[in-house]
Amino acid sequence: MSSDRNTVEARFERGLFASRWLMAPMYLGLAIALGMLTVIFLKELAYYLPQLLDLSAEQMILVALTLIDLTLAANLLLIVMFSGYESFVSKFDFEVGEDKPGWMGKVDFGGLKMKLIASIVAISGIHLLKRFMEISDLDTATKFGETEMYWLVIIHLTFVVSGVLMALMDWLQAKSYK
Predict the structure, then answer these.
(1) Coil vs helix vs strand at 60
(2) Which residues cross the membrane (predicted)?
(3) H helical segments located in the chain
(4) How far apart are CA 83 and CA 89, in angstroms?
(5) Cβ-based neighbours of 45, under 8 Å, separated by 6 or more
(6) Are 163 and 118 in contact (CB under 8 A)?
């Protein structure tokens, strides 16, 4: 009886462990989303390049912030894809050589969490900065009122506070292990 139970339990545990592969299509979906972000980045670049000589300094800064925003979102996707796959599904089984990012294979769940929140805070901060800069444009200022700016600031501060609290929790946890 005990042997049958151990066999059932072992099969169940192997099946449960194998279920991690259900995450693989999700990481493939993130790779597709990265490709989509690349297309949007190139579309933005192609849109603004012909206008380059007509752009004011403020408009060029907004273009740069838009491109930085897209790049940070792409970095975020890459970090989640690589470290999430390696943490939860399987290690990469090929030699990537010198091209391998320094953090790859070294980011644990806590590190991933901190990179995620840092990226979200940076993206939120850039979005907020873009909105502040757009206020100087009278057409945008009338469309984008005080209430919207208030909520953007509140949301950004929420991300910042969440990041600080996560870092504090990780620090306390690390300290408790020592």
Answers:
(1) helix
(2) 21-41, 61-82, 112-129, 149-172
(3) 2-18, 24-48, 57-88, 109-134, 138-143, 146-177
(4) 10
(5) 67
(6) yes
Burial class (CB in 10 A: 0-12, 13-18, 19+), 153: middle
Helix axes 109-134 and 146-177, enclosed angle (nearest 10): 160
> Cα(90)–Cα(20) distance, rounded to whole angstroms?
9
Tallying the residues shown for the chain, one arrives at 178
List the structure tokens of 159. Answer: 């991300």
- Would you list the domain boundaries of the chain? 2-177
pLDDT (tens digit per residue) in 40-73: 999 999 999 999 999 888 889 889 988 998 998 8
